[in-house]
Amino acid sequence: MRISVALAAILLSALGLCEQNNAPPTTMTKMVVRLSGPSIKPRSHGALPRTIYRAGAHYARIEDPPDARQQVQKLIVIAEPNAYSVNLIDKKGTHATDLGGPNDMHLPIVLPFDPKRRVPELDRLEFGDEFAFFQDAHAKKELGPIINAKPTDSYVIDAANGRGVLIVKSGTETPIKLSWQTTDGSFSYEYIEYEDKPFDPALFAKPAGIAYKEVPPDDSGSENGP
Fold first, then answer.
1. Which CATH superfamily is domain 3-18+26-215 in?
2. Every domain of the chain and the residues it spans
3. Is the Cβ–Cβ distance between 194 and 175 less than 8 Å?
4. Is 136 exposed, middle or buried (0-12, 13-18, 19+ CB in 10 A)?
């Protein structure tokens, strides 16, 4: 499963118009996540950790591990209205400028949980907003498992396509694991790291040394969707 490529397509189609006068955020959230599931082979490229940064409503960065077999190492940088998708190995990439509606940036988690998009509500489940999604869905709070000798809290949703479980550090909103039971089996994201840090504008700058191809802007002004 090439989750990074699919995420890139969704991100570029879901970009919103940035207000140019907005000051940059003061903090950003760094997430290091690892996906597992019935279609993810252990030690395969799809099972390797990804690093994701989210800052405010208009900044994001996704760093994929290198795939030696495919000669690809994807990097996505979002600083609305600009979006860059590059291959760090062959030094080629694309640049898109959004001219559409007022949507903010989205970092959807839905792909492995609902690949055929049968549950529209899952579009709102995003990296960096996991706890808010479960709260809005009135998830049932339960005592979570002991992980690394520490207590946790679990939040459970019974949805049309299966059961979703978010495990957080006890008494916090910090995710440790997010899983979704589907007809194809159970898929899980393990959060190796989830931490707020001071905003670093260099992470969201245009990647240097890349030969870019311009993607024609979408100036339809309509609501975009994945």
1. Lipoprotein localisation LolA/LolB/LppX (2.50.20.10)
2. 3-18+26-215
3. yes
4. exposed
Describe the strand order of the beta sheet including 211-215 as a list of residue ranges.
140-143, 152-159, 162-169, 175-182, 185-198, 27-36, 50-55, 59-63, 74-79, 82-87, 92-97, 211-215
Cβ atoms of 51 and 60 within 8 Å: the answer is no
Position 217: which residue type? P
Q: Are strands 140-143 and 152-159 parallel, antiparallel or unpaired?
A: antiparallel
- For the chain (226 residues), the mean pLDDT of every run of 10, in chain order, is 40 40 86 91 90 95 94 95 96 86 70 60 84 92 95 90 90 94 84 97 97 81 39
Q: If 0-12 CB within 10 Å is exposed, 13-18 middle and 19+ buried, where does residue 59 land? A: buried
pTM, full prediction: 0.82
